Amino acid sequence: MVEVIIPTHKPGFYLYECLASISKQDFDFNFFKVTVVLNGPKEPYYSNIKEWLNSFNFNSELLYSNVASVSNARNLALNKCVSTYVTFLDDDDVLSCNYLSSLISKIQSNSIVVSNTYNFFNNLDESGNDYLTFKENFSSSNLIKYRKYLSNACCKLIPLSLIGETRFNENLKRSEDAVFMFALSNRIDKIISTDPNAIYYRRLRENSASRSKYKLSYELKDALVIMLSFSKVYCLNVTKYSFMLYITRILAVMKRVFLTLRSN
Questions:
Q1: Residue 246's domain spans which residues?
Q2: FRET label pair with 62: which of 48, 76, 121, 228, CA 20 to 30 Å apart?
Q3: Distances from the Cα of 227 to the Cα of 42, 182, 224, 234, 247, angstroms
């Protein structure tokens, strides 16, 4: 059983398009469940989502939290999850029809399976390459070489047994995905790709949180909090985590600060 977890906050019609792409999956509807977690203001969003979910035939559940936090929403779903596998989906993104079936067909013990990824604004026919786009299949135990696939929680299938009691850091506003995946890295034996035609389409929105610009003072403070979060995970069990992978995570945060400094 696969659990598709979708956190959403004051969603627009793009959430319906996201759900519609799930309804077109060529994967047996009896073998997956969609859990939507609305966080923040409740109405009219809750009623709209309920109506949309009722219009589709896949198994679904709608949860609500008044805490406006994507991490809290994901954790709420994880706390209730009893499925064997989990895949996270952002509420404005879209899946190819073979997404779930391709992920599950490649799964191995103690591995994660990643899909291909493309970006789009409004038209899928005009999608472009993402930093996670690949042209050929791969399967590797070299987590450092394929570390970019540990930078976010979406675009992949994760066994619930790998997640265990690990949860998203609700104190982080950014990089919560990267910290979460780093926390799982000591249990991951392999990163395996689907065929290139299994695609997670990431919608680019100008007003999305990931594309927002922040003041330099905020960037510096945020970077420190993120690096401390990585360090806390690593230092709690230094014998089980890769030091080199830890260093790459720290350097990635420092690189973002450096790029911010250059742009100011």
A1: 216-263
A2: 121
A3: 34, 12, 5, 11, 10
